[in-house]
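Troubleshooting: if your tokenizer reports a length mismatch, compare your output against this known-good record of 74 residues.
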Amino acid sequence: KASFSNLLTSSINSVNELRRNSGDLRRAFEVGDPNVTLPDVMIAKAKAGVAFEGMMQVRNKLVDAYSEVKRMPV
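Known-good structure output:
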């Protein structure tokens, strides 16, 4: 059974890996690696961007939920 914190940590690590992979592909393309094409770089960048944006939306919802709970009378 996965805990919420483990799931959140795993998701953050996954997003970080996508961003790292995107940067590695970009650098490889810039130095002229024949195994890396421009579409590969663009797709990796788009995947990383979408994943990061999704993570930010989840973070915003968590902050909103926390703020709502704080406002509740005890």
